Amino acid sequence: MNASPTETLLDLRGLTCPMPVLKANRALRDMPPGAKLRILATDRASVADFQSYCRETGHALIAFTDTAGVLSFMIRRRAETSPS
């Protein structure tokens, strides 16, 4: 489901840890470098989970909001690294 031509929306409301991060990871793998993924979640643990996930993977957490219990994360996929 696309939110705009440059942003993909992933609605993960109702899922609990670790499912939001696992599903986001799967979606990001199929996206081109620099593409943006907006994730909607309701699990409060997602806040720390996505911060850690982005720190560990090199993706950028560029926005986060909490509106009436719906958490919205915007992640920009990292640039590809050259194979070792």
UniProtKB/TrEMBL annotation:
Name used for this protein in its record: Sulfurtransferase TusA family protein
Pfam families, A to Z: TusA
Family per similarity comment: Belongs to the sulfur carrier protein TusA family.
PANTHER family: SULFUR CARRIER PROTEIN YEDF-RELATED
InterPro entries for this protein: TusA-like, TusA-like_sf
Domain UPF0033: 10-34
Superkingdom to which the source organism belongs: Bacteria
SUPFAM superfamilies the record matches: SirA-like
